[in-house]
Design goal:
Helix content is about 35%, strand content about 25%. The chain contains eleven helices and 18 strands. Strand 4 and strand 5 form a beta hairpin. It is elongated and about 85 Å long.
Length: about 375
């Protein structure tokens, strides 16, 4: 079967691909809905098994199980496909905003991030299997809790272990309308900071009080002063709450901080610096504590990734596709964990669109088919 024949098969499967996309989008599977994520995983597994793939799950106690599918002899060189099953949306969103097509765009929760990417990966594997492809084996890894940074599961260690030895990795995350692919990503962590002060009446005995809000104000200024735009490392205090009424010295204040860093080592250093600020008291009699519920490693730019990009663009030229350009972005993905074990990785290979994580999220319909053809060509010529 030549590539033109595979392209024809993709065109012949357009409605089937759209139907599967719709089915996946219309399933509630927010990161904290383990049952919902697992149901999507089982649907994906059924498709893969029906098409001759081997599927296994890594069980996570409180988060969605991680799916691992394999095609070919895994003792031989293999290419890794990566993605995630979960979305950021609350239960009931699928019923409120089901999969809809308008003016060449698809709408719905997770339509872009990343149900469309899952469909691409599944159909690439299906079509290559039908053709009898044997150049490389293929392993697909879909996590169930990517959107919360795998907090509360051991998915990171599993992804790293499953990635080892891959000759290349392609992550089917959100694709960009400018036809770029991601070669590096910032890492991130969130810190929830609590300050305890001493409450007092603001009129009768204010001197007896120790303002938790005043203490937090000092900490915020110190933390945000760590931002280094030239290096690309940023600290943003995005949420703050404290006090109860205007005529009381506040005894409690909480702030949530977002930290973005260009390397995982920088992230560790920022963690220590913020911890020092939290533990230091600017207002005598106050104390601070910190909890880190979310952490994502940075996706490192590898020399091998740049060589992979060069090879992909040679294939794009050969097959008549538009070239892809390289992009560095601030949002995290599991590509951080493929690159952490040395696997050349191109990210954002999924459907193209915009507005992910919002009610306006949309994906370009035609990109579902174009990207499937593009990825099939890459696998044939890699």
């Amino acid at each position: 079967m030549e590539l033109t024949t595979i392209y024809e098969r993709i065109d012949a499967n357009r409605q089937h691909m759209l139907d599967l996309w719709q089915e996946l989008v219309n399933a509630d599977c927010g990161s904290y809905n383990k049952a919902g994520v697992d149901a999507v995983g089982k649907r994906v597994a059924a498709f893969l098994e029906e098409n001759g793939m081997t599927v296994r799950f890594h069980t996570c106690e409180t988060r969605g199980d991680l799916l691992i599918a394999e095609y070919g002899d895994m003792t031989k060189p293999f290419v890794l496909f990566v993605g995630h099953l979960d979305t950021v949306f609350k239960d009931g969103t699928a019923a409120e905003r089901p999969f809809t097509i308008r003016d060449g765009k698809a709408y719905g929760p997770g339509v872009l991030d990343m149900k469309g990417g899952i469909v691409i990966a599944l159909y690439v594997m299906k079509l290559l299997k039908e053709w009898g492809y044997a150049k490389y084996s293929i392993k697909l890894v879909l996590a169930g809790d990517e959107e919360v940074g795998h907090a509360g599961s051991d998915a990171v260690a599993v992804i790293q272990e499953e990635s080892k030895g891959a000759v290349a990795a392609f992550n089917f995350e959100t694709g960009f309308m400018d036809n770029s692919v991601v070669i590096e990503r910032k890492g991130a962590f969130h810190a929830a900071i609590d300050v305890a002060g001493i409450g007092a009446h603001a009129g009768n005995n204010p001197k007896d009080g120790r303002s938790a809000i005043r203490e937090m104000a000092h900490k915020i200024l110190a933390m945000e002063a760590l931002t280094d735009f030239d290096m690309g490392n940023t600290v943003n205090v995005g949420v703050i709450s404290g006090g109860t009424v205007a005529n009381a010295v506040p005894e409690h204040c909480r702030a949530t901080v977002d930290v973005r860093f260009t390397s995982t080592e920088w992230g560790r250093q920022y963690m220590e610096k913020i911890k020092e600020i939290v533990e230091h008291s600017y207002v005598d009699g106050t104390t601070g504590t910190m909890n880190v519920p979310f952490w994502f490693n940075a996706m490192s730019r590898l020399d091998g990734t740049m060589k992979l990009l060069e090879r992909v663009n040679a294939i794009m030229h050969q097959e008549g596709f538009a070239p892809v350009t390289a992009k560095s972005v601030g949002g995290g993905s599991d590509s951080a964990y493929t690159t952490s074990v040395g696997v050349p990785t191109l990210c954002a290979m999924g459907v193209q669109g915009a507005g992910n994580h919002t009610v306006h999220e949309w994906a370009d319909i035609e990109s579902l088919f174009t990207r499937t053809k593009m990825m099939t060509a890459i696998m044939m010529h890699l």
